[in-house]
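Notebook p. 47: complex prediction with calcium ion.
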Amino acid sequence: MEVAVSKGLTACLLLSPVLLQAKVPVSQFDKPNIIVILTDDLGYGDPVCYGGSKLKTPNIDRLAAEGIRFTNGYAAASVCSPSRYALLTGEYGWRKKVSILPGNAAMTISKDALTLPMMLQQCGYVTGITGKWHLGLGDGNVDFNKEIKPSPNEVGFDYSFYYPATNDRVPCVYIENGRVVGLDPNDPIRVSYGTPIGNWPTGKDHPEMLKLKGLNGHNQTIVNGIGRIGYMTGGTKALWKDEEMAELFTGKAVGFIRKNAGKPFFLYFATHNIHEPRVPGPKFRGSSECGVYGDIIQELDWSVGEILKTLSDLKIEENTLVIFLSDNGPRVAEGYADGGLQNLNGHKETGVLRGDKGTLYEGGSRTPFITRWPAKIKPGVSDAPIGFIDLFASLADLLKFKLTAGQAPDSRDGLAVLTGKSRHTKHNEVMMQDNGVNIAIRSGYWKFIPKESKPQSGKDELYDLKKDVSEQFNVAEINPKIVSKLRLRLDQIKH
Ligand code: CA
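Predicted complex, structure tokens below:
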């Protein structure tokens, strides 16, 4: 182990593979490849291995069967941006008031922060992102026609191929290493989230041009027959086609793995699926028994299968830690009238959990959560409560990287839980956040949503998740001491 030589950053920086081989008999498994598959809006009840029995998710199920399937695994928030922020920085999104960002938002990650991929770079990893970013770009006045900085490349990724925000927000283009892919300089991109810009048709004025009817503000500039949130014009040749996204991003992920198979690599595969608009490729359209919602999950499962197949083909699956997550819970009927809700056919996207995306109830942030590392992890099921914000400190522990004060400030070591060696972390605690600064806490089996966080009852809510996983019985009034203790704990965490 590297720890036998020295500790922390110094160890990671100084011990190049050559030095390691020369001085220390290091097991080939000390430094696994790491792949985080972060799905978008996948629900706790969606994969078959989590109860989605009408669907076909053989690849996610295989991952679960060969690794640990967590039944109490949590995203860091119940919406995209704060959750992703927490994953990559180890800091709760609410501390920096990170909420769902528009496509022209400034970079949310401070230039002084140590990010998860930066830590891994310092430990000798090649790092890459493919898929969704949604953490802001540039300094607040991003020009998509020039090199974009800061971008993922400035916060720890050696390679990046991504889209700026969400697949329902403009600009609908891909960016590779800071440059819009396929941009014609004679057709510059302009973006606005306020006043309409350019003269491209909008969903509001031209509903006859839409292939998906937009709801709740998804009726601004039409790109690829779909009304988006926000206005854009220009970049015609660079515009994406939703039908091709899964194949494209999966191909980029596979390409990154193949290119870097000979060294330790970190791949952050942030899939666009299953976020709206749900537009599966032709192979998956109509493939499930649960309408488009099921089709898109089955397309996601195919992407997972391509990653697993690649690891197997390259004979690197033994030494690759795959971590499968979702950034928040699902919302079947959100921005488009795609028939998702009407065709669920009994499928329950959050299983038995209450609430969904955007809420502080369990369905908002308890999500599929799987770790697989054949060389080190014994397959099984774990009911240990674990939040994915703890990945940062856990991977630091794995790699003997010493985090200093201020680095990944809210991430705590859960390595023993993630590798199946323990059933609980020392802190035994998970925090939840909505699309704002409202927070809730789970401590052991107690789940507390203070009245300040605006739960549905308008009062303090306390649930005993051991007896009441569906959060049906608010027991706050008969447990005042527990309420006081958890309120105090929330105050401590906030300050
Ligand atoms: Ca999401």
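Notes: Residues 1-27 have pLDDT under 50 and may be disordered. Residues 45 and 351 are 4 Å apart (CA to CA).
Next step: compare against the earlier run before touching the bench.
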